[in-house]
Amino acid sequence: MDNKNPRRQFFIQAAQAIAMTMMGGLVWSAFLKESRANPLILRPPGALEEKEFLKHCIKCGLCVEACPFDTLKLASAGSGKPIGTPYFIPREIPCEMCPDIPCVAICPTKALEPKLVQSDGIWEINKARMGVAIVDKEHCVAYWGIQCDACYRACPLMGEAIKLELKRNERTGKHSYLLPVVESEVCTGCGKCEKACVTQEAAIIVMPREVALGAVGTNYIKGWESQDEERLEDATLHQLRNSNKNLQEVQDYLNNGEL
Ligand code: SF4
Ligand code: SF4
Ligand code: SF4
């Protein structure tokens, strides 16, 4: 075969280039597909909000290497998660809540932002908000009246992030339920409760906060909380500013003689 024929070589190279481009296109579209964030992905402590996280994470894997418990994994092709980004699956290996948070400390781009897990420059792992635990009341055996506190006991913030609530069993009239209840404001999303759950499929699962929790909106105010009184003042100011703005617009409209 005459590989030295420049014309023949040109056609071979052109065909190879087209094939490569087509393959590249396929790989790229697969990459894009996987890059659309899986809404159920759980990120390491200190991770920025998902959209910002994806912009900042350079997929270096340093956080994964730094994790002493092998909690963190890097998403691979076909996993349905943005390729090369770190995540964890609590039912397999939860976050062990390292006090010095090595995964965050090593991140070169602040995709894992130290300020989100520090107070006055001191590491504070309890500030992490990797997700929030949700109890599946249909499958949690404590809701059937069977005594179980495995999730409660596994929680590093036992009694704060997860509590046991006593409730009378109306069905028997004699017994009580001891029900696990998660305090979403305190829960770090470490997933130790999910790992510890005794049911075949965990009846308490950690979900991304933006998926699991609603957003109330600033117009609802709890009158009994001081923080909310400040919000009320802010909201009143905001409304005043808006109503002044609307008034000005009406005056301008009338003055322009457009009636
Ligand atoms: S805090 Fe520790 S256990 Fe948790 S992800 Fe970071 S390095 Fe791993
Ligand atoms: S260390 Fe930071 S930039 Fe590197 S993979 Fe982890 S989160 Fe992404
Ligand atoms: S995820 Fe579970 S174990 Fe971790 S803080 Fe929340 S309730 Fe506790």
Automatic annotation (TrEMBL):
Keywords: 4Fe-4S, Electron transport, Iron, Iron-sulfur, Metal-binding, Repeat, Transport. One of its GO terms (molecular function) is 4 iron, 4 sulfur cluster binding. This is MauM/NapG ferredoxin-type protein. Residues 46-77, 84-117, 131-167, 178-209 form the 4Fe-4S ferredoxin-type domain. NCBIfam families: mauM_napG, PRK09476.1. Coiled coil: none annotated. It comes from Helicobacter canadensis MIT 98-5491. Pfam families: Fer4_7. InterPro entries: 4Fe4S_Fe-S-bd, 4Fe4S_Fe_S_CS, MauM_NapG, RnfB_subfamily. The lineage of its organism: Bacteria, Pseudomonadati, Campylobacterota, Epsilonproteobacteria, Campylobacterales. SUPFAM superfamilies: 4Fe-4S ferredoxins. The keyword Ligase does not apply.
